[in-house]
Amino acid sequence: MSEKLPSKPGGKDIAAFVAEARSLAAVGSGRADSARLIIGIDATQSREATWDLASGLQMQMFEAAASHGGLCVQLVYFRGLDECRASRWHDQARPLVDAMERVRCRAGHTQIARVLRHALRERTSGKVAALVLIGDACEEEADEVVGLAGQLAMVSVPVFAFHEGPDPGARALFQEIARVTRGAFHRFDHSAPRALADALRAVAVYASGGDEALQRLAAQEGGAFRQIASQVGR
Questions:
Q1: Pick from 16, 40, 72, 101: CA 20 to 30 A from residue 2's CA?
Q2: Looking at the domain 32-229, which fold is it?
Q3: Pair type for strands 184-188 and 159-164
Q4: What pLDDT, in 10s, does the model give residues 116-151?
Q5: pLDDT at 9
Q6: 61 and 100 in contact (C-beta within 8 Å)?
Q7: pLDDT at 25
Q8: Dist. CA 156–CA 27, nearest whole Å
């Protein structure tokens, strides 16, 4: 079961949103037993190989988080011309994997702004430890996307932006989203699944155990873990 996300922002005026955002940013950083992590994935046609890969990595991600208090994950995907949906929150890997396996990639345009707006809405109802964004392109206005990233920064939601492919414009925008939100950027190739697996494990550990847990993992494992840990919160 998934919920279709609205294509346009709600009716709140900017001043009201900023006031609400500032009040939410003041909420304490204490973590619930299961931290909440949103994974936003581009499911347009060019992403098919990585979609299947990411489906198979979810179990590892939950296992990595288990020793730090667990993880509650919501899948958000977009495809086609106007389809952007969010799953229910899952605290077990199997239902999330099943949800991903039911989705097939479909040609269309990117809808990254809708994913960022959704993360903002979810933040108003509770703590969101982080947002993962996986994609290879951005066909939207950069100013709008970066502006939404700024709003996520105001409510302490870092974005872990994972970019695939040769598009330099999209890569630069993903880097900027990560920088603005004090998250992390990581470049990967679906032909090297270990890189994406390590990146997702790093985010799971950060979301469930915080920066200290991620830094410990980076010191032990190096590689992608260290590369991501060196960026978070900077």
A1: 16
A2: Rossmann fold (3.40.50)
A3: parallel
A4: 999 999 999 889 999 999 999 999 999 999 999 999
A5: 59
A6: no
A7: 38
A8: 10
Q: Which amino acid is at 104?
A: R
Q: Closest by alpha carbon to 201, among 180, 226, 168, 166?
A: 226
Q: What pLDDT score was predicted for residue 232?
A: 96
Q: Given CA atoms 145, 146, 151, 156 in this order, what sign does their dihedral have?
A: positive
211 burial type by CB count under 10 A (0-12 exposed, 13-18 middle, 19+ buried): middle
Half-sphere exposure of 98 (CA within 13 A, CB side): 8
Residue type, 230: S
CA 12 to CA 27: how far, in whole Å?
21
Residues belonging to the chain? 234
Bridge partners of residue 90, in order along the sequence: 73
Two tokens at 112? 């990254």
Domain coordinates in residue numbering, the chain: 32-229
Q: What are phi and psi of 139, to 5 degrees?
A: -105, 15
